[in-house]
């Protein structure tokens, strides 16, 4: 962030922070949500949000976020990944 401050870098930092042992996922989710205005239409925002929501146990919200990411993604490899993550989430219910 010091070298290249941008919303995308902030999102990447938040996603990385979410993977730290003992991470405050609710705080990370707020950080991601705060980036939404700057990253409207950016498919990695709802994808990162979905991942954090899933790990918070908010399956329905996570599924909706995966759907949003899928709507924004045109890359077939990324689409398959998101479909797989969505399916894994719904199979746990």
Structural class: mainly alpha
Number of strands: 0
Helix content: 55-70%
> What spatial form do the alpha-carbon principal axes imply?
globular
**Total domains:** 1
**What is the CATH class?**
Mainly Alpha
Overall mean pLDDT: 94
Strand content: under 5%
Contiguous runs where pLDDT drops below 50 for at least 5 residues: none
CATH fold node name: Serine Threonine Protein Phosphatase 5, Tetratricopeptide repeat
What is the correct CATH architecture? Alpha Horseshoe
N→C terminal distance: 38 Å
Please provide the ordered H/E string of secondary-structure elements: HHHHH
Biggest sheet layout: none
Rg over alpha carbons: 13 Å
Topology:
Layout: H1 7-18, H2 25-34, H3 44-55, H4 59-72, H5 76-91
Could you walk me through the main structural features you see in this protein, from its secondary elements to its overall organization?
The chain has helices at about 5-20, 25-35, 45-55, 60-70, 75-90. It is mostly helical. The chain has a single domain (about 5-90), classed as Serine Threonine Protein Phosphatase 5, Tetratricopeptide repeat. Helix 1 (about 5-20) packs antiparallel against helix 2, helix 2 (about 25-35) packs antiparallel against helix 3 (about 45-55) and helix 4 runs antiparallel to helix 5. The chain is globular and about 40 Å long.
């Amino acid at each position: 962030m010091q070298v290249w401050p941008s919303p995308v870098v902030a999102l990447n930092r938040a996603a990385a922070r979410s993977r730290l042992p003992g991470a405050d996922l609710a705080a990370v989710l707020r950080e991601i949500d705060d980036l939404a205005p700057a990253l409207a239409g950016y498919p990695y925002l709802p994808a990162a949000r979905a991942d954090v929501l899933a790990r918070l146990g908010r399956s329905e919200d996570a599924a909706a976020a995966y759907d949003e990411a899928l709507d924004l993604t045109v890359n077939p490899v990324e689409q398959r990944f998101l479909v797989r993550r969505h399916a894994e989430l719904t199979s746990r219910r």
